[in-house]
Design a protein that fits this description.
By secondary structure, the protein is α+β, with helices and mostly antiparallel strands. It contains 3 helices and 4 strands, in the order βαββαβα.
Length: 148
């Protein structure tokens, strides 16, 4: 009997994500830094890695949220398993100082397909206008019934 090896899954690499969230602008700077560090720490404790944190600062909102015309924007690029964004969004939803958030997965193209070469259509022989008109009139004469 053959030795049956157990089915082994390949180690799944983490997916790349981009998270943008808006913090209430009335929050003081220290509390805002703690909030950013809290969510970065949450990513790392769930097995992810924070690649880049970009604080955009206070910006005017397109429309007022909770009667606030401005918000403090933060952009985070991170790599994690597929369950981590759900946990992050769940925590952001119950945090009062987060006005809005959006997580998107960044897909990288990994195909080895070469681009198609441009095809040139074969050119048809062109007939001049007087010759084409003469051919049409000849065909019309042949197909017309003869009068007796």
């Amino acid at each position: 009997m053959q030795d049956m090896a157990p089915y082994v899954h390949e180690e799944v690499k983490g997916m790349n994500y981009e998270l943008v969230y808006i913090i209430n602008p009335t929050v003081e700077e220290e509390a805002r830094k703690e909030l950013i560090a809290r969510f970065n720490g949450m990513i790392e404790t769930n097995g992810g890695t924070v690649d880049k944190v970009d604080e955009w600062g206070k910006r005017r909102l397109a429309y007022p949220i909770n009667d606030l015309p401005e918000g403090y924007y933060v952009l985070v690029h991170y790599t994690a398993e597929t369950s981590v964004p759900k946990e992050i969004e769940r925590n952001m939803g119950i945090t009062d100082n987060i006005l809005r958030y959006l997580t998107t997965r960044i897909e990288h193209k990994t195909t080895g397909v070469k681009p198609r070469t441009a095809r040139i259509a074969p050119s048809a022989p062109e007939a001049s206008a007087p010759e084409a008109a003469a051919e049409v009139s000849e065909q019309a004469e042949e197909s017309a019934p003869e009068a007796e």
